[in-house]
Design goal:
This protein is α/β, with parallel strands linked by helices and 222 residues long. The chain has a single domain, classed as Rossmann fold (3-Layer(aba) Sandwich). It has helices spanning 44-51, 74-84, 100-110, 115-128, 144-156, 174-189, 201-204, and strands at 2-13, 16-28, 33-37, 59-64, 67-68, 85-88, 162-166, 193-197, 209-214, 217-221. It has a six-stranded mixed sheet, sandwiched between helices. A hairpin with a 2-residue loop joins β1 (2-13) and β2.
């Protein structure tokens, strides 16, 4: 599904470069559930953002469904993202000016889903995540945990080929977190490819493969 060849990410600091990722070679096959672990500052979120086409590498090649993403401009990357990817952000990234209902509807508008079908899909997600009573509220009116649930629902509503999740249960109660992880497992069993960044050994164990990053390098992959 996706392949990273010699991916490096660095930022200019004065006259030198600060490296976040170094020479990353990684392949994720369709249907895999991969967990990325490592200490803070290891480059986990940066790696996920590059996979999610929300950031670009300084060097190297990225292929997604045989598309050379590293050769694409912003518009082409965005179109590929909207068609195939779902992203759960650690800091929610809900659209402040839109209600919960409208936030959930947005990915379906991008995919030109018909109005009646959109309504059905949004109502299903509101019900599944137990936020029906919050549908007309704006993000600032929700607790952190509620915003996280809406963020998860928004990432999943368009049934993406690839789900990328950055600490998806970080702001949830343990029981809510377990429900989300159980659902990820079900979706993966049904064929969805998932890559998650997590500090939790318990959450990482839901995946079939754990990649450990240290100082921007892949230290283990198994």
């Amino acid at each position: 599904m996706l392949k990273l060849n010699k991916i490096t990410k660095h930022y200019k600091t004065g006259s030198s470069n600060t490296y976040v990722l170094r020479n990353i070679n990684l392949e994720v096959k369709e249907g895999e559930f991969v967990s990325v672990m490592g200490p803070s500052g290891a480059g986990k979120s940066t790696l996920l953002h590059i996979m999610g086409m929300l950031d670009v590498a300084s060097e190297g090649e990225y292929y997604f469904l045989d598309n050379p993403v590293h050769e694409f401009n912003d518009k082409k990357r965005s179109a590929l993202y909207k068609e195939h990817l779902g992203f759960i952000f650690q800091s929610y990234h809900l659209i402040d000016e839109l209600t919960v209902y409208e936030n959930l509807e947005t990915p379906l508008l991008y995919k030109k889903v018909k109005s009646s079908q959109r309504k059905s899909m949004v109502c299903d997600m509101l019900d599944r995540f137990q936020v029906v009573g919050k549908k007309d509220l704006f993000p600032h009116q929700l607790s952190g945990g509620q915003q996280q649930l809406v963020g998860v629902a928004r990432a999943l509503i368009s049934q993406p080929k690839l789900l990328l999740a950055d600490e998806p249960t970080g702001n949830l109660h343990s029981s809510q977190g377990e429900e989300i992880m159980d659902w990820f497992k079900t979706l993966n069993d049904e064929g969805m490819t998932i890559v998650q960044v997590t500090h939790s050994e318990k959450n990482a164990a839901y995946g079939g493969r754990i990649i450990k990053l240290v100082d921007g390098w892949i230290k283990s992959d198994g």
